[in-house]
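Forum: Protein Structure Q&A
Topic: Joint prediction for protein chains with partners

I've read a bunch of threads here and the consensus seems to be that you should model interacting components together rather than docking separate models afterwards. I'd like to see that in practice. Below is the full input, 638 residues plus whatever partners are listed. Could one of the regulars post the assembled result?
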Amino acid sequence: MASVETPASSMAEGRLTEEFAVPSHVEAERARMANFAMRHGSAGRRVVLITSGGTKVPLESRTVRFLDNFSSGRRGASSAEYFLDSGYAVIFLHRHRSLYPYTRLYSGVNLMDALHMEGDGGSDRVVVDQQALPNIASVLKRYRAVKEAGLLLPVEFSTLSEYLHLLKAAAQALSSIGPKAMFYLAAAVSDFYIPASEMPEHKIQSSNGPLQISMNMVPKMLSPLVKDWAPQAFVISFKLETDPSILLERARRALDTYRHQAVVANVLDTRRGYVVVVTRETQAELALTEEDAHAGVEIEERIISNLSAAHSSFITLQG
Amino acid sequence: MASVETPASSMAEGRLTEEFAVPSHVEAERARMANFAMRHGSAGRRVVLITSGGTKVPLESRTVRFLDNFSSGRRGASSAEYFLDSGYAVIFLHRHRSLYPYTRLYSGVNLMDALHMEGDGGSDRVVVDQQALPNIASVLKRYRAVKEAGLLLPVEFSTLSEYLHLLKAAAQALSSIGPKAMFYLAAAVSDFYIPASEMPEHKIQSSNGPLQISMNMVPKMLSPLVKDWAPQAFVISFKLETDPSILLERARRALDTYRHQAVVANVLDTRRGYVVVVTRETQAELALTEEDAHAGVEIEERIISNLSAAHSSFITLQG
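Posted by a regular:
Agreed with the consensus. Here's the joint model:
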């Protein structure tokens, strides 16, 4: 498939350039991502870009207040582990301080409650209480193996603007490996923002009375990503709704609009135990049973198993 | 000073009751805080309530989007340590997942990079790399001493509504110890919110076009706190601005309006090295020199030293 420039995709890209200032670290991150993709691509490995966490939308240019999207980053962080288990190299484009692969398993534990001293006089040693951090030894081994093999590349964003420019840089960096690249766009990206030109410089004063905020719509980057930046890649978007009755129709509409490969559709209240993977031809319901949940099985294991198989077929068809 | 009911304080309290639903866990937290205050008060100890972190203001009742205030919780968490060092018992009312006393010193470190295995065959031990977590042995000792003495009571909030009701519960719980209670209100509390009656139930659809948000002003709780809930306590509020030219005037205006004891005034860009403690009669500039900063001195040490001395005088005057 050749890249075909359409009004929708070039318009979105034009708005990105004009309305969102390029963060200073994007070029350095682009080079890191390009090297990573090249190295693993030439070793015959597939590479997935996972986006994870919510985006911060400033209301003031010296920011005190911002709009955010609910997301702990749990889905993205656990998915990264299953992609690594399935042989992928992973670029983890995540919100600063959101959940991270492996450490996410201990995010609810106070570090100080998980350590104890072992002093024999002069040399104090600090040792992990393995009851407070269950399975820490085996998790640490998995983390170390991934790190030593250089299979996980973390890249951080905070604001919407950083996210959008880093996504573009990642897409371009991954275009060198063609269909072996997967995009797994699990981040909770804002649909709305305030253009820099309309933003007050200073903290909005509450003494001015009730607040009226008027926000523009964020350009949809899926359009240039699929058409122009990485036209050969396998692209998965996510659709989260709170109203189950509109979910599947919206997932299908997204596939029609952007012409990418699949939508993972989920409802806020049930997202940890039930998703539907929607493609143009198929619709796969993935669900955890009560026994699964009890045994600690995570829905992301099923999602990645489904998508990894679909990616294999996709690569074969392109080849 | 007897409690005098004024229109401003009773109006704010009335709006709290009418417009913000009481979270289910408030009664249990109130009892924990009251026990804590009673126990330490009868041991002759002062008790400080520290509020810390930003408040979440939902835009939808099944929340996907929310407004937030910039705050890592660093100031509140480090202040808690200096209050503990000064002999206070601390109620730490903080945003879920914001920085926490002691662990905050290691928040930038990936836990997995700070641990290593020590296997001698069968029994794997996991040990802390003390270069990755500097001073961990001494920090752990301080944390343990505080915990064993029961000197730190953590209470969590996420939403603005939880914050407001927990603040009221805390104030009432601390009223039993009179002037020995200090309020150190460092949380970044939203000035604006959307009333439940005007909030859409479901996720706002981006297909409906640009977003108009209209937000009401949050009632100022400092008013009933000082007048009605804890009229004998020593109360400190914070004023953060981005524009230095309006800072001191706003601090003085807050003292005139609420009649509390002090405002810690600070500017976003310089808040880690410079604050002004403003009282009705005095104005103390606290600043770190370059040598201080180099030596790892924190501005919170100076703030707590100043306020703790002022609190002593306050108690003497009341007695």
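The two ends of chain B are 12 Å apart (CA to CA).
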